[in-house]
Specification:
Length: 273
């Protein structure tokens, strides 16, 4: 049995999340259906991040087992011929049989995009939270600093989440301002359900002055989700990167500078003439 590793990008607006659900269209279902059509065998997709309905991804990582004779580096072309245009395979390769994207990764970087304005370009409306609030980035950075490190994030866990260890380690939270747009980059070894969106909501509260340092520390200590404010909407969130090497400051900076507008402002490398 061959083990194929694929990297997926998808625009999550039209899907009820990544993970397969009964009677709801998901990204996993679309890819598994394409694999079955391609190979003639029902195939299970193993993945790193269970992104929610409406959340996007640039670097979702998945594996599947197959007896197909298609070369590992050709699945990118075979699958993209069958998948809808809002789901793309960006890389495919064959790995050793025991390779697992779940067990081998060191963490992830997400970006949350929001605006101070109530209105925005129709080309951005699917990708950001229009807060309509004037924000103070200095206050936001102060709260971000308190959230960085290892904490019990029970208060930042979404309702109806699967029971799991609430202690998580955040390596970095970086906030970048570009006119009315704010990009919140959150890097950690693992995340709870709705955790990044709840962090984004708390940082907006900090930006308006509604979240002080003392209040945040009290909320963390309470381990009570009801003490926290609103969960930021799904459409502003994008999974940028899953790391398969130890995470470094340089690696995070490289991720934040990907040529991936609107979540990153990096420039693509110019071609050589």
């Amino acid at each position: 049995m061959r083990n194929i590793w694929i990297t997926l990008s998808y625009e999550g607006t039209n899907y009820a999340g990544f993970q397969r659900q009964e009677n709801r269209m998901t990204v996993q279902e679309m890819v598994e259906n394409a694999l079955q059509e391609l190979t003639g065998v029902k195939t299970t997709l193993y993945f790193v991040a269970r992104t929610d309905a409406g959340v996007h991804a640039y670097g979702q990582e998945c594996t599947f087992y197959t007896e197909s004779s298609i070369p590992g580096d050709r699945f990118i072309f075979a699958l993209n011929r069958m998948l809808p245009r809002d789901i793309r395979v960006t890389q495919s390769r064959e790995m050793e049989e025991n390779f697992s994207v779940r067990r081998r990764n060191f963490g992830k970087t997400y970006c949350y995009l929001l605006s101070e304005e109530r209105e925005t370009s129709p080309f951005l409306v699917r990708y950001l939270w229009r807060t309509g609030k004037k924000l103070d980035i200095q206050r936001m950075n102060e709260i971000a600093g308190l959230l960085t490190g290892k904490h019990d994030f029970t208060s930042f866990r979404g309702n109806n989440s699967v029971p799991s260890d609430p202690v998580r380690n955040l390596y970095d939270i970086t906030i970048k301002k570009d006119g009315p747009l704010y990009r919140i980059y959150v890097t950690g070894e693992g995340f709870l359900y709705h955790m990044v969106r709840n962090i984004a909501g708390a940082l907006v509260d900090a930006g308006t002055g509604d979240m002080t340092k003392e209040r945040l520390l009290s909320i963390l200590a309470s381990r009570d989700r009801r003490q926290l404010g609103m969960t930021a909407p799904a459409e502003g969130l994008c999974l940028l990167k899953v790391y398969f090497q130890p995470i470094t400051k340089e690696g995070i900076e490289e991720t934040m500078n990907l040529p991936l507008y609107p979540w990153c402002m990096g420039q693509p490398e110019s071609s050589q003439s």
